[in-house]
Amino acid sequence: MIAPYTHEKGSPKDWADEAIGRFRLTSPSNLWNDITVPFWSMPENTCHPTQKPEKLIAKLVLASSRNESVVLDPFLGSGTTSVVAKKLGRRFIGIEINESYACLAEKRLELAANDARIQGYEDGVFWERNARRPAR
Fold first, then answer.
1. pTM assigned to the model
2. I want to staple 71 with a disulfide (CB 3.0 to 4.6 A). Which of 5, 51, 66, 85 is the partner?
3. Burial of 102 by CB count in 10 Å (0-12 exposed, 13-18 middle, 19+ buried)?
4. Residues 86-116: pLDDT tens digits?
């Protein structure tokens, strides 16, 4: 958090000095700077022109559903929403008009059955890009 909104006696409220830096625990903000578009070298990358990163969708699914909830994506595209829902133990419904993208989503769902990893999310923690430390 760059600029705290609440002060106590002229100092920022609830800041902590830790070994990894000076920060404060807070609710998620509206700025997620730890998201990366799926690069060619990432296992989740597809040929879909507007594919969303699994980490982004994971944040949305975890924030808005519980285990076994149903997640709906009426514009499924490459299937990222369904893949992430499956990896996080949710049920899912996806609608896609383009047959090649629907097939791509099916292929990704098959792969997700054997590999539930989401890059940047491990052990219930979102990690900073290319690091094993929690995202701030």
1. 0.73
2. 85
3. middle
4. 999 999 999 999 999 999 999 999 999 999 9
